[in-house]
Amino acid sequence: MNAPTADPEPAAHYDRVTDGWRLLFGDSLHYGVFDQGDEPLAVATQALTDRMIAAAAFEPGLRVLDIGCGTGDPACHLVRTQDVDVLGITTSRVGVDRASARAAADGLADRATFEVRDGTANELPDESFDRVWALESSHLMPARDALIAESARVLRPGGRLVLCDLIRRRDIPFKEVRDRRVDFATLREAFGEARMDPLDSYLALAEAQGLTIEVRTDLTEATLPTFDRWRANIAEHRDELVELLGADGLDAFERSTHILEGFWHDGTLGYALFAASKPA
Ligand SMILES: C[S@@+](CC[C@H](N)C(=O)[O-])C[C@H]1O[C@@H](n2cnc3c(N)ncnc32)[C@H](O)[C@@H]1O
Asked: Is this prediction's pTM over 0.70?
């Protein structure tokens, strides 16, 4: 999924889709973890955030960097429930505006702040955060090694990186990429430029930065019902979504749910979470 696209910048893509995606995904712009299978999407997206929280091992008063903060829902949740301070960063100006408004409305503006910054070159001071949190944003960053190196750099000794995202679970031969180029183009149109890597490649990058892997969890099966829930939201909000995403954009998104679901079923793609600590 590396070929050029009409909309190559994640920032531009997210500026364009953020408001529409809230109707598809809910307040949190990420997949759900379905522990029961029939629970509402909002319960399942919260369950994914809760898996991240468990892996992060928060303590009150810690300072957290949220890389790829979306519209601020996870960051505000962390402030409220974990008693931590969060700087959320994203390359999307619309995301920062929505997240800042959200924190202000929730009375959390002093503890949840948001800035336009790139997770692969964040320009934040060394050793200035206790936790780095990257919830489903890494697949949008081509320089995956720079993301992990920057995360390790800004962590204080004893700090922890926690990351979850879509992963690639097998090699995709060139012939298959070529034969399925229409499908890959549809995914790019719906989700922007992205690259899914194996979980092991993330773990190797973390270890190369001197981090110790503490948690690794495959969430492929638990995230599978997400696609069905997104399609239900399309059916419920179709007219509004056509306004926000355009008929072609919505069509590409709907087709993408079937393509991704097929990739989940045939073992091509999936979802995983890991946490890695910096030596004290
Ligand atoms: C799927 S959304 C996840 C949002 C949020 N973590 C959540 O769970 O609600 C991906 C986020 O990554 C951000 N993003 C993409 N590329 C980025 C980069 N290079 N640096 C920082 N954020 C980036 C997008 O703007 C968006 O906010």
From this structure: yes
